[in-house]
Amino acid sequence: MAQTPIVRRIKLTSYSFPTENVTTDLAFAAGPFYEPGSSGSRRLLGIHIETDAGVTGEYISGTPANREQIEMIAPFLIGRNALDRELFYRQSKMILRKHDRMGIGPIDIALWDLAGKLFDAPIHQLLGGYREKLPCYASTYHADRSPDGLSSPEAYAEFAVQCLEMGYKGFKIHSWATAPIEQEVATINAVGKRVGGKMAMMTDPCCVYDTYGDALRVGLACDDNNFFWYEDPMNDGGVSLQAHKRLRQSLKTPLLQGEHVHMVEGHTDMAVAEATDYWRADPEYDGGITGVMKIAHAAEGFGMDVELHIAGPAQRHCMAAMRNSNFYEVGLVHPKLGSRMPVYKCGYADGLEHIDSDGCVTVPSGPGLGVEYDWEGLAKYKEGEMVIE
Q1: 3-state SS string over 53-122?
Q2: CB of 200 closer than 8 Å to CB of 170
Q3: pLDDT for residue 381 is more than 90
Q4: Mean local confidence (pLDDT), 237-245
Q5: Residue ranges of the chain assigned to CATH 3.20.20.120
Q6: Whole-number Å distance between alpha carbons of 107 and 89
Q7: Which distant-in-sequence residues (6+ apart) come within 8 Å of 337 by Cβ?
Q8: Which fold is adopted by the domain 126-362?
Q9: How many CB atoms lie within 10 A of CB 293?
Q10: With bands split at pLDDT 50, 70 and 90, how would you rate the model's confidence at 29?
Q11: Torsion sign across C-alpha atoms 306, 307, 309, 313
Q12: Beta-ladder partners of 49
């Protein structure tokens, strides 16, 4: 039997990566878009959980803004069994009860990586494997301000055709938001005209529509084009259950909600209130792999599906152990942009071109997360480090 892995040391390392040709607009604040010649940076957080069993759990988090929450809860693990993930989940929820609890996920993922390494098994097998190939949809960057990218409804439609020809099973629009609502509707119609009936179509305005009327107009366009789902349209961030129940009752296109409603209790209340058709979950946002599987099982009890937010090895392992999930989100993708920052040295990637001929990705088969991080290559981007003992 494996030695009990007692946590002795947790290391948190901040990194800042330079980025090119991608920028954001805080007046929009919904996501990145293509801008030729622009430069910026993106921050990540590396996590190492070291034990006296000689096994270390590792994870790189894409939401470093949660570092203060992580610093609040990580000391609880020192001197404790790294396999007691449910205890950590429960205690962290209590410690972070006045916060959004998004700091729990990255630590929980690293604990699952540690467990997989200890038992020499991939996480999806520890969870109870269901599949090893995941059908994918292409999830776009937001609309461009430059003329040569996703800068018109027709450009979105052309990109949808490109993704269809590559083998993608679905295509999701991250749209305009700051443009007139007619531009949103035109984009829905253009994509529907070109690939409707050939692949699943979705749209995610990222909570930017100011009025119920605007949300309804775009939803009716989704109805006309038989969209597979309509995601997070209203600017409340998805927390107004009554507003989304009313919107859902007015449309035939299923709503997808939950990216901004965290943890299993909020998701369950959302379903009881009839405010969504699909559930949204994210290992970083919803209490880690532990939290996502609670959400998946709760949704299963309602006869509902869970769609995981964005790409990553933790998402792949969760989806591989879930029956009630349709698509893996490859994103963000763009016809002019390649894969983003290389943090792996094992060949793992989530870029536009990294699906197989069936439009699927596979689940890493190595122990734990099954990926190898390029810690040596990352060193040149290091900003700072904290050690908790």
Answers
A1: CCCEEEEEECCHHHHHHHHHHHHHHCCCECCCHHHHHHHHHHHCCCCCCCCHHHHHHHHHHHHHHHCCCE
A2: yes
A3: yes
A4: 92
A5: 126-362
A6: 10
A7: 21, 22, 34, 141
A8: TIM Barrel (3.20.20)
A9: 23
A10: low
A11: positive
A12: 10, 57
pLDDT band for 1, please (50, 70, 90 cuts).
Answer: low
pLDDT per position as a tens digit, 344-360:
999 999 999 999 999 99
Model pLDDT for residues 150-175, shown as the tens digit of each residue: 999 999 999 999 999 999 999 999 98
Phi, then psi, of 308 in degrees rounded to 5: -80, 140
Q: How far apart are CA 160 and CA 266, in angstroms?
A: 33
CATH 3.30.390.10 maps onto the chain at 7-121+370-388
Residue pair 314/291 in contact by the 8 Å Cβ criterion: no
* Token digits of residue 5: 């892995």
DSSP label at 234? B
Contact 245, 273 (CB under 8 A): yes
What are the structure tokens assigned to 336, written together? 């002019």
Place of tokens 């001929």: 357
DSSP symbols for 323-338: SS---EEEEEEBTTB-
pLDDT in tens, 188-214: 999 999 999 999 999 999 999 999 999
Q: Which CATH architecture has domain 7-121+370-388?
A: 2-Layer Sandwich (3.30)
Nearest to 5 by CA among 121, 126, 112, 129: 112
Say which residue the tokens 């870029």 belong to: 351
Give the pairing type, strands 56-61 and 328-333.
unpaired
Interatomic CA distance for residues 333 and 335, integer angstroms: 7
Predicted local distance difference test score (pLDDT) of residue 177? 73
**Chain CA centroid to CA 333, Å:** 14
- Residue pair 374/343 in contact (Cβ under 8 Å)? The answer is yes
In order, the DSSP letters of 341-376 are ---BSSS---STT-S-TTSEEEPP-SSBT---B-HH
Strands 133-140 and 56-61: unpaired
Q: How many CB atoms lie within 10 A of CB 47?
A: 23
Q: Can you spell out the DSSP letters for 116-154? A: HHHTTSBHHHHH----SEEEEEEEEPBPPSSTTSS-SHH
- The letter for the amino acid at 123 is I
